[in-house]
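Bench notes, afternoon.
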Amino acid sequence: MPRPPRRRTPLRRRRLLQALALLPWVGAGAVLPGPARAQSATLLSLNASRAEGQVLLEFAVRLALPRVVEDALQRGVPVYFVAEATLYRRRWYWRDERVARVRRSWRLAFQPLTSTWRVSLGALSQAHATLPEALAAVTSSGGWRLADVGQLEPGATHYVDFEYELDTRQLPSPMQIDLGVRSEWTLRVEREIPLPPAP
């Protein structure tokens, strides 16, 4: 029997839950962890718009791959980058309603025989001469259809919850054993933006 899809919590509520989880430690006088290291993934732009009857999304992320990730790629281990966007309708009387969700997964791999980098998105695949060129192909997207305008409720407030990450769950099983303590593999950005109202 197929497992039901995992119900996601909007970004704002996830951050609130994370903050609440720290309260017992603060009350007990525990020392909280210091500031996190500078992230190797930065969200450069994220825009949602309405055009030709559709809700479209475009984004750009800057990646600086840690040495451990580059070494794995050079050894022939493919890595996967995933972008997911969820469109919500805000409701004051109940949990916000999920209107639509889209997901894209890019596969990045090094080809030793040809010394090229291959990026695959679904059935599409393209070779690149350098790693920066390949990363440019997996870190941006334009005109990404999120929903039809007809799915929106007139006069309601809508927003987009966006996430982009290196998906370690798709790495070979032996590599996942100690990833829980390998922060170098944590490449992730998330953002919540409003959908502009209809003109």
